[in-house]
Amino acid sequence: MNKSLNKAARILATSVALSMLSLAPQAFAATPADTLVEGFAIDDIITLDPGEAFELSTAEVTGNTYSKLVSIDIADTSKVKGDLAESWTTSDDGLTYTFKLKPGLKFASGNPVTAEDVAFSFERAVKLDKSPAFLLTQFGLKGDNVTEKAKATDANTFVLTVDKPYAPSFVLNVLTATVASVVDKKFVMEKAKAVTPSADYKYDSDFGNEFLKTGYAGSGPYKILGWKANEAVILEANPNYYAEKPKLKRVIYRHMKESSGQRLALENGDIDVARNLEPGDMEAVSKKEGFSITSAPKGTVYYFSLNQKNENLKKPEVIEAFKYLVDYEGIGATIIKGIGEIHQTFLPKGQLGALDENPYKLDVAKAKELLAKAGLKDGFTVTMDVRNTQPVTGIAESVQQTLAQAGIKLQIIPGDGKQTLTKFRARTHDIYIGQWGSDYFDPNSNAETFTINYDNADDGKNKTLAWRNAWDVPELTKETQSALLEKDSAKRAKIYEDLQKKVLETGPFVVIFQQTEVAGYSNKLKGLKLGPSFDTNYVYPISKE
User: In this structure, are residues 42 and 57 in contact, taking their beta carbons and an 8 Å threshold?
Assistant: First the structure.
């Protein structure tokens, strides 16, 4: 009886919250004292299943609702600390990692958190084989061996066996990624659906994937109460959370695309935090009494990439020409002022081996020479898929203008985050502009996606950025893999420096800037702090006066 009433109450609360958000902004008035409301562009969310999710906004949601064995130490991102794990050891041969869980842990459902849940979470991520699965399969985990390689030896002991003696810091950093989130096996399998095995998927269960696209089965500080695409995500405090309890009862991420709309809603009291402020609105908020701005450098780079399936875009001279057809200086002084800095290499500042070199500048004459050498002196027409949010729209329009100076006609195809990402992941774009945030704080996170392409076929399983752009690079793939076995940090850094130089020179990626995330907020809030990554933008320490 109580369970039914509780379920009904949750459904009612979700329905009310979502219906409130569908009304005009003024209907929301002052935000409730026990609720944090953030204006945030969340149109990139495709799924909330941590075994499938691979988008920045989703990473923030899962980072506040799911737990992992270990998490990044935000006070020192070169270190990891225990989350569900109380301790861990590595075998002498570097192949076996043994984790001991903290005692007395519970999921939001009330079920105990056990090593079997950890093993199941690894198994389902590998067998589902969705976009982020490669983070785990790179350790030699496969559908037919994962139950032996990632297993519980007792209720509180989880053992992971990897295929090579990787640098331990690399393995542990990977385990801080969203795909390593631990889900409630009992609860999830009660929701699992039977499926018919096929050539592409040989298992008879969806491992609760359909349910977790919108549902929840975690143990983090908040639980997911509801999600309505392009409207809102509602979180509610998890009473079973084992660490610092959330200060507020509820968190609402309210989908708002426009910077000006977010600023107005913040100033009117309709939201507590504005997450996508452009330079002008950021400056206005900083000068208004009762409001403040906070910022944090992010391990996120903005880039556009050229699909090598396009016969024009695959020519080396064209790739180089594009790098001379970006007004980096103008973009830095206007569109990204205060929210980023020009950065042209794929490793963000602060990571091992990151280069701070920006060799390219706008040089139309140089670009024209290169296009002529490619047999395209009169230019050509090409499309760019653009998420209709800032700053990518502004950057795309700037690039459109500079490309035109060299005779290249760029057609911008706008869409929401889900649309542009889906097309990009299917390799059906010409040019895609977007952002890449490190999945974990190790240089391999970016190096792997920009420089590894195991199988360039359309049905390739490891869908890195190199694969998405059909960039077949067997030598770079080998070099990137070699860095994972290098125990000497200085030597490892040199490998990443070399990889960055090669991508700068020949890669189909035009990296433009590294993000500084900003947020405008009401001074009624206490404890708001942006983290070094989207999944470390923690909301549980935030309170209201």
Answer: yes
